[in-house]
Amino acid sequence: MRIFPALVAGAALLAGLPAVAKTDNAKGEAALAKALAGRVAGKPVSCINLRDIRSTTIIDGTAILYYAGSTIYVNRPADPGSLDDDDVMVTKTSLSQLCNVDVVHLVDRSTRFPSGFVNLSKFVPYTKPGKAR
To answer: What is the residue range of the signal peptide feature (predicted)?
Structure first.
């Protein structure tokens, strides 16, 4: 008889999980929209030159931003759940470019233990109107 209330409580907890995930994703989408405010999306590209990248930003559970001069390249991995802005990105490439076939390994900033990885997708360039690249 005590099992039934436990099952009901467990089901209620599981039912609440998708709502939490949507809330976290909404925060990520809002942060992404703020970072790209006033910019226009261009045609997605498969690779970007490493020498052009000046800095990067991880938006939790959403995307990686690569800043290259006045252009921001947005990469939305197919499974961005591992993305955490508190992690350090480690990417090994054999070329002078970062491409959509590359893997980004994530390392916890404080413990230095691996915390996951993401497979990159195409890079969408965002520029300010009139500065198309």
So the answer is: 1-21
